[in-house]
Specification:
Blueprint lengths: L5 H11 L6 E3 L6 H14 L1 E6 L7 H11 L3 E6 L2 E5 L10 H7 L1
Parallel strand pairs: 1-2
Antiparallel strand pairs: 2-4, 3-4
């Protein structure tokens, strides 16, 4: 796991700016199955957004705490109901953002 510094977080936020959220948290809330799916998507992409729907019973802070406590995924930024997530891929072929982050 890469411990992110300020400049690295800025790079990741800028990279995620034009992305649309890939995952969302709805009525089912936070489950282990949801977190597993998040982890496997992280393995392929390293960086993406998660949206918390209006009908969800959880807050942004609860989602952030759940993700960081139960995985190696880091929350880079929260804006409104959207979180930007980053985690280094285990497979070197899937690493694009983490390679650039380490250069910063």
């Amino acid at each position: 796991m890469i411990e992110l510094r300020g400049k690295q977080k800025r790079y990741l936020r800028a990279s995620a700016h034009a992305m649309n959220p890939l995952f969302s948290v709805g009525k089912q809330g936070l489950t282990e199955n949801w977190l597993e799916q998040l982890g496997s998507a992280m393995e392929k992409r390293e960086l993406f957004k998660v949206n918390i729907l209006n009908n969800s019973d959880v807050t942004v802070d609860e989602v952030k705490a759940f993700i960081e406590a139960n995985s190696s995924i880091q929350v880079v930024q929260t804006i409104g109901h959207t979180l930007v997530l980053f985690d280094q891929a285990h497979d070197p072929k899937n690493r694009s953002y983490s390679v650039n982050v380490q250069k910063i």
